[in-house]
């Protein structure tokens, strides 16, 4: 599983740092946001409402699965809302 997370991390770095198209980055972040919602939902289904709502009793694994995923989701939504500023299109410089 950690290899999968590593692969997704490297894919994200490759997509975000090699493209000059904001639409590509936005589509990538939309996919991640949908995956975040699905991940949190399935953790909720596995835990049940009582354990899910009792944040004080969460262990490290639950914080990783729900807390960190929720934090990342909120950052993605903030990006979509423009809270971090406008998208900047990078132009490649032609060299002779």
Automatic annotation (TrEMBL):
Residues 1-86 form the DUF7704 domain. The keyword Ribosomal protein does not apply. Keywords: Membrane, Signal, Transmembrane, Transmembrane helix. InterPro entries: DUF7704. Residues 1-18 form the signal peptide. The chain crosses the membrane at residues 66-85. Pfam families: DUF7704. The keyword Transmembrane helix applies. This is DUF7704 domain-containing protein.
């Amino acid at each position: 599983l950690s290899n999968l997370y590593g692969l997704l991390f490297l894919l994200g770095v490759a997509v975000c740092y090699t493209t000059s198209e904001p639409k590509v980055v936005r589509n990538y972040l939309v996919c991640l946001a949908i995956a975040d919602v699905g991940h949190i939902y399935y953790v909720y289904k596995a835990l049940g409402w009582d354990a899910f709502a009792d944040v004080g009793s969460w262990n490290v694994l639950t914080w990783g699965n729900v807390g960190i995923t929720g934090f990342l989701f909120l950052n993605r939504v903030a990006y979509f809302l423009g809270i971090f500023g406008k998208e900047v299109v990078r132009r490649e410089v032609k060299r002779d």
